[in-house]
């Protein structure tokens, strides 16, 4: 590798931790729930404000900013060989209800700071460097995870589905996108698709969302693979009725069918006998939702994941069989069993793992290889680019709750490793 404009002294990589923490704190105020919780839902007023905040920071960093039809935001620093495939980095800033301020955010604000770090060091990239803020990594509003990156990676199924997708208030995806200033005059979202090979590398910085790095006192996690996620929506329907008047033998309670299925999910997951298999019923709704009315409808959303795709698929099949059996036994209708997504796992690319390892080593930071049990936009970027992820420790492994926290020092270490990794990959 030729390294013409490489910073002479790596210790010159200085992170402005004070500004970075201020940005993290300020971004957390764009929230629909009170601090310390953060709730930032796709295309909401707060999301639009947060997007402006990010675009401004990209502008201050001297990046040229573009947005696509669903609001993926790209900030580019042109390299001295701009015709080469660029090196990209980024994450998301949407936040699930009552979550914290670091998930995703560290990988967006940290990426912009990594660019600032490189600029301050005098580095000149050969390949262009691009920071990406992905639209809706979280499935909160439209039920689809990694919406922006999934579409970028060319999911025609999603492109088609989004024409008919609505949120819980029956607002269509396209109307919501338009209200935030996107998808103007467009029905066809295939303009978001990126060609395979457009990036020579993609690297995402993220809090670990698990306890290992903190417990072991290790600064940097180098992700080798991302577990395979899936999600399922289920509806049961019964006759409902008066909670006093309808006697037990005459009921077909949609709520009890849901309760039984929730327990079946747990059973099938545990029966896999692998600690890596997980399943969660995070949404369980009863209709009409009155204490003195037998539920006539129930709705469940099931999340299940595994590092082993076949084992995860077996769990999905068992859940389906249980749903059918429970409906029959309880004489309710299984009116929907929809697998929303059933994604394969993704592997990090060797060349990026090596660059992240070398960077950690040169910065004297203890590091270890690990897998990601959470999913990330990297899962989809891996379809169009060699991919890698950098994890940093977070307090007790907490995530998706207000107590989520990473220290300034850990964030700064992650930003340095990201900056050096981007520098190396840009010269490659
Ligand atoms: C994404 O936030 C996930 O649930 O892994
Ligand atoms: Mn998340
Ligand atoms: Mn995240
Ligand atoms: Mn995530």
From TrEMBL:
Q: Would you say which domain of life the source belongs to?
A: Eukaryota
A single Gene Ontology MF term assigned here is: metal ion binding
Where in the cell does this protein reside?
Answer: Endoplasmic reticulum
Cite the entry's keywords alphabetically. Answer: Endoplasmic reticulum, Hydrolase, Manganese, Metal-binding, Purine metabolism, Signal
Family assignment from sequence similarity: Belongs to the peptidase M20 family.
**Protein name from the UniProt record:** Ureidoglycolate hydrolase
Q: Which PANTHER family match?
A: ALLANTOATE DEIMINASE-RELATED (PTHR32494:SF19)
Q: Which CDD domains does the record cross-reference, listed alphabetically?
A: M20_bAS (cd03884)
Quaternary state and partners of this protein? Answer: Homodimer.
């Amino acid at each position: 590798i030729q390294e013409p404009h490489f910073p002479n002294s790596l210790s010159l990589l200085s992170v402005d931790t004070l500004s970075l923490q201020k940005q993290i704190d300020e971004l957390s105020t764009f929230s629909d729930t009170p601090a310390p919780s953060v709730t930032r839902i796709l295309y909401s007023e707060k999301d639009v404000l947060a997007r402006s905040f990010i675009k401004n920071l990209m502008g201050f960093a001297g990046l040229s900013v573009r947005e696509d039809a669903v609001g993926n935001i790209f900030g580019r620093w042109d390299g001295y060989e701009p015709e080469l495939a660029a090196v990209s980095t980024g994450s998301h800033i949407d936040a699930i209800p009552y979550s914290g301020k670091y998930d995703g955010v560290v990988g967006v604000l940290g990426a912009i700071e990594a660019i600032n770090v490189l600029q301050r060091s005098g580095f000149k990239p050969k390949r262009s460097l691009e920071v990406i803020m992905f639209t809706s990594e979280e499935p909160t509003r439209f039920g689809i995870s990694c919406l922006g990156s999934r579409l970028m990676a060319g999911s025609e199924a999603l492109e088609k589905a989004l024409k008919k997708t609505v949120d819980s208030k029956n607002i269509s995806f396209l109307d919501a996108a338009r209200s935030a200033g996107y998808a103007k005059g467009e029905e066809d979202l295939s303009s978001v698709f990126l060609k395979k090979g457009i990036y020579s590398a993609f690297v995402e910085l993220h809090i670990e969302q698990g306890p290992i790095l903190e417990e072991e006192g290790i600064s940097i996690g180098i992700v080798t693979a991302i577990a395979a996620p899936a999600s399922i929506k289920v509806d049961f329907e019964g006759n409902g009725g008066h909670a006093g008047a309808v006697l037990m033998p005459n009921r077909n309670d949609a709520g009890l069918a849901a309760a039984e299925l929730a327990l079946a999910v747990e059973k099938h997951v545990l029966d896999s006998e692998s600690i890596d298999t997980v399943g969660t019923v995070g949404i369980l709704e009863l209709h009409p939702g009155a204490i003195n009315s037998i539920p006539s409808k129930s709705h469940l959303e099931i999340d299940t994941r595994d590092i082993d795709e076949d084992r995860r698929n077996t769990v999905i099949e068992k859940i389906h069989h249980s749903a059918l059996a429970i409906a029959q036994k309880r004489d309710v209708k299984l009116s929907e069993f929809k697998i929303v997504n059933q994604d394969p796992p993704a592997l990090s690319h060797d060349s990026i793992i090596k660059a992240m390892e070398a960077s950690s080593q040169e910065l004297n930071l203890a590091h270890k290889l690990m897998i990601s049990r959470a999913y990330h936009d990297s899962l989809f970027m891996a379809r169009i680019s060699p991919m890698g992820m950098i994890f940093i420790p977070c307090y007790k492994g907490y995530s998706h709750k207000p107590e989520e926290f990473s220290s300034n020092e850990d964030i700064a270490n992650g930003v340095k490793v990201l900056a050096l990794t981007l520098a190396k990959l840009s010269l490659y």
